[in-house]
Amino acid sequence: SAELCLLPALAALLPPLPGPGGPGPAEVGLGALPAELRAAVRALVGDLDALFTAMGLREENFAVGALSRIVAAELASYAPARNRRRTATNKASIVFVDRTLDLAGAVGHHGDNLAEKILSVLPKLPGHKTDVMVNMVELTALQTTDETCSIIAPGCLAQPNDPAAKALWESFMNLKQKEAVMEARRHLVEAASRENLPIKMSMGRVTPEQLSSYIKLFRNNLKALENHCGLLQLVLATVQTLKHPQTSKWDNFLAFERLLLQTIGESEMPSVLKQLLPMIKSYSERTKDDYTCEDFLVLLVYIYSVVGEIESRKELDAAEEELKKALVKAICDEPEPSPLLQKIT
């Protein structure tokens, strides 16, 4: 979007977590990093320099976090960047922030944002880090319940050649979810009117079923399909996200996170962990509303990020041990562990 540029080639670049044997905060320098990470930092510096060259930027660097300091220092001393800064006309301040300093933000569910939900719940487009697969079967006469149907190529979110779709994506990113869904309906109604499709405009709350019924009007009109293909992909992504079981779980997460923030203030960590215990269920006991093993890992990352430094003591150690046992049992009982669980185990 106009305000956000992602560098997917570097999606895996994460600061090393401080742990036994890892580089401590004192040993900050490119040489202290593992070879793979060193290469990734150099690649990032090269990419940023190319980006700033295209924008004609002369930058001042600021850094928050150990890895960010290394990146900022490398960029400052990078020979092509020094040459560029001598001739560039536009000034900018660049702030680097370590991703690990805001894990609570990355795993929290506080954003009332449709774009965030779409990117979180729909499956990733193969080979892409920042785009998703949109199931296009609804636009065809092929009616199948098979979710893995691969006869119809998936749609996606990137629609650079469709002005209406680009405008709608901006509103998905910048408006609250309710307003963004109303925008989706408005764009759809305008497109249908332009194609003289028999659309009945309704007021009030927008439901995924209502959007689906509007989308079906385009199905037998190839010219209308072609003219508004990008827009239809974004609206389909909206419908599939709103109907997705993970979206209803989103509200459960949010409720639990809010409850947790209150509890943390009043009581201590062991009681919070004890609250989690009965919620850890193995595969055979789980219903679709229960948390999966991954959901628990996300919750735990959130809890420990919000709490910060904790002193180890008997009661806490005992509560952690119980939680570990329950989680390990649940992970071992998974009939088909997800790629993430396989990587962890």
TrEMBL record:
Keyword annotations for this protein? Signal
Does the record carry Ribonucleoprotein as a key word?
A: no
Query: Organism's domain of life?
Result: Eukaryota
Q: Which InterPro entries match?
A: Sec1-like
According to the record, the signal peptide region is 1-21
Any one of the GO BP annotations = vesicle-mediated transport
Q: What is the name listed in the Swiss-Prot or TrEMBL entry for this protein?
A: SCFD2 protein
Organism this protein belongs to: Sakesphorus luctuosus
